[in-house]
Amino acid sequence: MSAMIQLQHLTKTYGRQRGIQDIQLQVAEGEVFGFLGPNGAGKTTTIRTLMGLLKPTSGQAFIAGLDCWKESTAVKRLVGYLPGEFALDPTLTGAQILSYLGHLRGGVDQNYVRQLIERLDFDPSKRFRDYSRGNKQKVGLVQAFMHKPRLLILDEPTGGLDPLNQQEFYKLVQETHAEGRTIFLSSHILPEVEHTCDRVAIIREGQIIQVNEVARLKDFKQHDIEITFQQPATLEWFAQIPGVLNSILEPNGHTIRLTTQGSLQPIIQIAAQHEAYNILTHEPNLEEIFLRFYANEAAQPHKKSLA
């Protein structure tokens, strides 16, 4: 599968202020790719560089083989872009804004525009200044999707949307993916990425610290297990099991709490041998995994795992 996005040693600095540093990344055509990090991590700087709105300090960014800075006009023809923050003429109605942007595109399918408006429960008759945050976001989503671009670059796309509209957005992503088009989705909302993306990159302080499939990121997760026994328990039962990272014996003497990584089968076998009568497990979601990446990286040099 060909690459839709390629970042080669991409760096953008703002004088003494940190931007992004030596980012290397490849996103395949037809992929839904999540770009994760808290506010200030470098997500928006990366996206603005991709869109040709910022000139790299060094390195290069390519979309469909086109240099994002040198061939930015050609790049913009391929892309539907939703910025994290956008300002439009406050005196124009939603319909006027979409009409204007559609004409800039050389015309769009008006039936599809009407479908998007209906699906997002958007009233295009109001002036932009009168819209709530969520309705302004709907304008941004409609204009990004309406020309069925080859690549969608969406910066925090569900900000301000209610749960029903978030679900409709997820359906739009699934439909776009099914058509073989590419989505690059920046977010700090972990369930959103977990729900929609094939692969994910985690960015911290301007550097990529992990790139992997969402499913494989979950393989790194730890389980928190609470086991209660009929008889008094001892931590020695689990001391030799690979993957047991931490163990605590509760004051009652019958309950052991374990933090583990890897297969749970050896733990369950030993628990059964010692007549455990209650086992509770907690599987961290992607948000907890993400926070662990940050905690681990704070104590050691940056690592990159490009998959």
TrEMBL record:
Listed PROSITE patterns: ABC_TRANSPORTER_2
Instruction: Give the residues annotated as coiled coil.
Output: none
Q: Which Pfam families match?
A: ABC_tran (PF00005)
Question: Is the Transport keyword given for this protein?
Answer: yes
Q: One MF term in GO for this entry?
A: ATP hydrolysis activity
Keywords in alphabetical order: ATP-binding, Nucleotide-binding, Transport
Looking at the record's lineage, which domain of life comes first? Bacteria
Start and end residues of each ABC transporter domain: 5-230
User: What does the similarity note say?
Assistant: Belongs to the ABC transporter superfamily.
Q: What is this protein called?
A: ABC transporter
